[in-house]
UniProtKB/TrEMBL annotation:
Lineage: Eukaryota, Fungi, Dikarya, Ascomycota, Pezizomycotina
Source domain of life: Eukaryota
UniProt name for this protein: Male sterility NAD-binding
Length: 92
């Protein structure tokens, strides 16, 4: 029996689409810009909000999925991933 490796880019896209769909239903008519709270900024050690457009969010999720697939995330990426996961209905 062979196991097919999932396409992590597609997994990231599916997660992203779920997130955007949920956000759009909560904020009808709002532009597709998404704000993520990053718990601690490297320079100031203070929480900050990062505003991403659709393509930036796609890139971030795909990058996180790839790093997760490759066997680990850096501590910064883990924090970013943790801040994104509450919005997703699919697990990785």
């Amino acid at each position: 029996m062979t196991t097919k490796t999932p396409d992590y880019g597609k997994v990231g896209e599916r997660l992203l689409l779920n997130y955007i769909e949920a956000t759009a239903s909560q904020n009808p008519g709002k532009p597709a810009v998404h704000q993520l709270l990053i718990p601690e900024d490297d320079d100031s050690h203070e929480p900050r909000i990062v505003t991403l457009n659709y393509q930036q969010l796609v890139n971030l999720i795909n990058k996180l999925c790839w790093k997760l697939h490759k066997g680990g995330l850096t501590s910064q990426a883990s924090v970013a991933y943790a801040s994104l996961t509450p919005y997703f209905t699919y697990g990785l």
